[in-house]
């Protein structure tokens, strides 16, 4: 007698962000000073490498989440209240300063939930791409995700039943479950009291403010097109990747932007950076911590950033004049603390 077992899908390992994991461990230590982090060794494939943990600690320091003793700073404690990646938490807190909290919460929910775009159905690729192009935003994928979520919200408010919402998503080849999850994440994060401003999505000032908020958290995920053909060199790790084929820039723009901020980097047959939006050297040097910039490995991209920094540097004060820091030390200290 033989037993026939049902076919199972290929096993896989669910990866999680070491940075997010370490942030949660540090937050637990706030209430339990004796708690220590012990790296397990069984099985070794599931244990983070010591180098990864050290890199995560360094990244948390860049995000101003740690104090001089390696514990969570006051800013880090606030960041740990969000059920999100530390970089997203930093961007949300920065959005309070830039009056774009509502937009940043939407972006955070959409990038945390599964992709809102369904897998391209065989035989209906052109129809799906045509539908998705209606949501494209010229400034990049983060803004496209806001367009998708706002359209979903409008459909949900005007629909008589949940079935109608699912039909609306199906007709546009959108993942209704992912959008529903994103809506739940927005509701959860909204429970944390934040200074909301009247949404102004679409205005030039609002677009710039969203980019500033994103850069405040994701300054470590910047890439530059080094040859004008879409080969992006990442500043930190010097990996080369291309824009994902379903990126807003791949679908609706002939010339890729020179500088982009990206949310994910995937290693496969073709290395891809996913969820990208255009940025600039001037914005980067304004919002990235100076000591992070100083620690970047030498490269042509760093030289370009240094030139932008030199252009933005204030002229030397003449004799008898006070520097901005001497005039208002409190303001300067607050700005640096946020960065």
Automatic annotation (TrEMBL):
Q: Where is this region: Disordered?
A: 315-339
What GO cellular component entries does it have?
spliceosomal complex
- Record's keyword terms, sorted: ATP-binding, Helicase, Hydrolase, Nucleotide-binding, Nucleus
**Location within or outside the cell:** Nucleus
Q: Boundaries of each Helicase-associated domain copy?
A: 55-146
Which InterPro entries does UniProt cross-reference here? DEAD-box_helicase_OB_fold (IPR011709), HA2_WH (IPR048333), Helicase-assoc_dom (IPR007502), P-loop_NTPase (IPR027417)
Q: What protein name applies here?
A: Putative pre-mRNA-splicing factor ATP-dependent RNA helicase DHX32
């Amino acid at each position: 007698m033989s037993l026939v077992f049902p076919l199972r899908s290929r096993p896989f390992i669910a990866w999680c962000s070491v940075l997010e994991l370490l942030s949660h461990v540090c937050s637990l230590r706030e209430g339990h000073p004796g708690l220590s982090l012990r790296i397990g060794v069984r099985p070794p494939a599931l244990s983070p490498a010591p180098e990864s943990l050290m890199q995560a600690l360094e990244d948390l320091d860049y995000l101003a989440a740690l104090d001089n003793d390696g514990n969570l700073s006051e800013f880090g404690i606030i960041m740990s209240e969000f059920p999100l990646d530390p970089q997203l938490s930093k961007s949300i807190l920065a959005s309070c300063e830039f009056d774009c909290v509502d937009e940043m919460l939407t972006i955070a929910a959409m990038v945390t939930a599964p992709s809102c775009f369904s897998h391209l159905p065989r035989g209906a690729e052109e129809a799906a791409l045509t539908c998705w192009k209606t949501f494209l935003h010229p400034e990049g994928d983060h803004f496209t995700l806001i367009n998708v979520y706002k359209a979903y919200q409008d459909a949900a408010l005007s629909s008589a039943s949940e079935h109608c919402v699912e039909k609306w998503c199906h007709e546009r080849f959108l993942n209704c479950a992912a959008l529903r999850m994103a809506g739940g994440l927005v509701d959860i994060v909204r429970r944390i009291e934040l200074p909301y401003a009247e949404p102004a999505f679409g205005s030039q000032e609002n677009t710039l403010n969203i980019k500033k908020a994103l850069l405040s958290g994701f300054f470590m995920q910047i890439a530059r097109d080094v040859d004008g053909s879409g080969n992006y060199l990442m500043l930190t790790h010097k990996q080369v990747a291309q824009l994902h084929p379903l990126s807003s820039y791949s679908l609706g723009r002939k010339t890729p932007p020179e500088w982009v901020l990206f949310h994910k980097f995937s290693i496969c047959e073709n290395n891809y950076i996913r969820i990208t939006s255009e940025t600039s050297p001037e914005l980067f040097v304004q919002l990235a911590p100076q000591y992070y910039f100083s620690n970047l490995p030498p490269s042509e991209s760093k030289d370009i950033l240094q030139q932008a920094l030199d252009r933005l540097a204030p002229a030397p004060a003449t004799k008898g004049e006070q520097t901005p820091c001497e005039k208002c030390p409190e303001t300067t200290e607050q700005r640096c603390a946020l960065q």
